[in-house]
Amino acid sequence: ETFNALLNIAQAESGQLEADKKGFNLSALIRNMTELYEPVAEEKSMILTSEVAPGITVYGNKHLMSQALSNLLDNAVKYTPEGGKVLLVLRLNENRPELIIADSGAGIAEADHKRVLDRFVRLEASRNSPGSGLGLSLVRAVAQLHCADIALEDNLPGLRVVITFEEPKPKLL
Asked: For residue 39, is pLDDT > 50?
C-alpha cells in the first residue's frame, strides 16, 4: 500500500499521467463518495452531509481524484470524535470549481499546515494510529495534476481542506 501510494505520487508529480486525463463529472463523484462514506460516519455517530452543485466537470484523472477524496474523507472520519460533523461542498467560486472537506475534529495547528502535505509526515497526535504519512502528500500531488490549488484552513473546530480547480476552458468547435 505504501509502495503504491509512493508510485502514484511520483507518477502524478512527474506528469506521467497526463495522457490519462479526460473530462469527468466531479459532482457525481462527490455524491458517490458521500454515499460510500455515510455508513462509516454513522458507525461513529457522526453526521456526514454534502452540498454539491450539479454538473461540475473537471479535466483530470477520475481514479486518482477518487483516491484523493478517499484519503481526505478517511482522515476527516478518523480524526473527528463521535457525534462530530463532516461536510463536503462542491461549488463554483468565481467560475472555478471549489471542493471543501470540513470536519469538526481536533484540526491541525496552522504551523503544520504546509508540512503535513509532505511525504511521511505524521503529527504527534496520529503517531499511534495506522498510516504512513502519505495520504495528504498524495492529495497535494493529485491537486497539482488537476491544476488545482490546495489550502488547509482552521474550521474552528476542525480542519477545512479547500481544493480550487482552474477555471474550465470553453470548448472549441
From this structure: yes
